[in-house]
Amino acid sequence: MFIVIAGAGQVGHHLARALVADHEILIIEIDPSRAAFVAEELGEEMVMQGDACDAATMERAGMERADLVVAVTGDDEDNLTFCQIAKAKFDVPRAVARINNPQNESFFRQLGIDATVSATSLIMAHIEQELPWQGLLPVLTLQTRGLEIVEVRVPPHAAVVGRQVKQLLLPQGALMSLIIDAEGTPRLPTPETIIHGDDIILAVTSIETEESLRSALTSSTP
Amino acid sequence: MKVIIMGCGRLGAQLAAMLEADGHEIAILDIDKYAFAHLPPTFKGRKILGDGTDQDTLRRAGAEHADAFVSATRGDNRNALAAQVAKHVFKVARIGSVIFDPIREEVYRGLGLRTINPTRIEAEMLRESIERPEDV
User: Fold this and answer.
1) For the segment A19-55, what is each residue's pLDDT rounded down to a tens digit?
2) Is B75 close to A77, i.e. CB distance below 8 A?
């Protein structure tokens, strides 16, 4: 794939390094000294100095043949504009944006950004999962129809412990995809699979049913 | 009308003063408290120190009950983000957004934003002053 990344900060730089073995990568960075620094390591041909939201720069970058754009600057407004211009003007099929202000997460998806990654939300979810009430960790937002993959750790005192999958009352549209037991063995759930405390469950859910799924799997009262 | 203006530079402040003179109720936002010095001393509206691209800040400025929202900072991307938040999150009926880059303006107009492009307007007026110098 040809992937164009906006922003050569820490995230953009390391993302490019990780992707370069399998993909054609171009990073656009506005700050000349940062661009030069990253170009030194990744090679001149992988880095372009310029404003990623400027159409002339985007044209020079060959945006019309990009399969994916990834916006990882530190500013939400720049990430949104880059993705929106890429999609509206250059017909890029898929856009991923880093989100700094968690309030922008669902809003950006509403505006047609296919996937969003919010470090703030992820860290918050991790913190919440450490708290006595058990949280639900978003793993991946799917591009279609507001679905996401979430991770839930079943607390030892949860009402679902000892029950079979077919006995569970899960919200409509939520699907348990994988169970990883305390030893770390992954299993595909069958209707007869028994839920244990400290199982990690990966489930597909709509964003609306997220909360009822969390409560169904972690609540101590049935 | 209740109007929220984001950006209290010369443009935002001038607009605020004009709209207030027309009898509208103004809340003006800026991230720099010294920017409010652009407002005339007679300004009676609300001055809010905060980032207009942030939903909580917009709520604080009264976005839920606003009739109109204008983003008039110097940053195209900020203006476009704030205008889209006002339009899609707070359902503000009238939106005006300043976008200096003509190409970006075209894209955002295509996405349904009411955009104003000062670059084009100024260029047209300058062209007129050159090609049709009436007041010699």
Assistant:
1) 999 999 999 999 999 999 999 999 999 999 999 999 9
2) yes
Distance CA A11, CA A31 (A): 15
Q: Are A80 and A102 in contact (CB under 8 A)?
A: no
Structure tokens given for B44: 């009676």
In chain B, residues with a C-beta closer than 8 Å to the C-beta of A95 are none
What pLDDT sits at residue A144?
Answer: 66
Query: Most A CBs within 10 Å: which of B6, B56, B107, as the mutation test of the A interface?
Result: B107
The CATH code belonging to domain A132-218 is 3.30.70.1450
Assign domain A2-121 to its CATH superfamily: NAD(P)-binding Rossmann-like Domain (3.40.50.720)
Task: Test A84 with B85 for CB contact under 8 angstroms.
Answer: no
From the number of C-beta atoms within 10 Å of its C-beta (0-12, 13-18, 19+), residue B32 rates as exposed
pTM of the model: 0.73
- Alpha-carbon gap: A24 to the closest alpha carbon of chain B (Å): 26
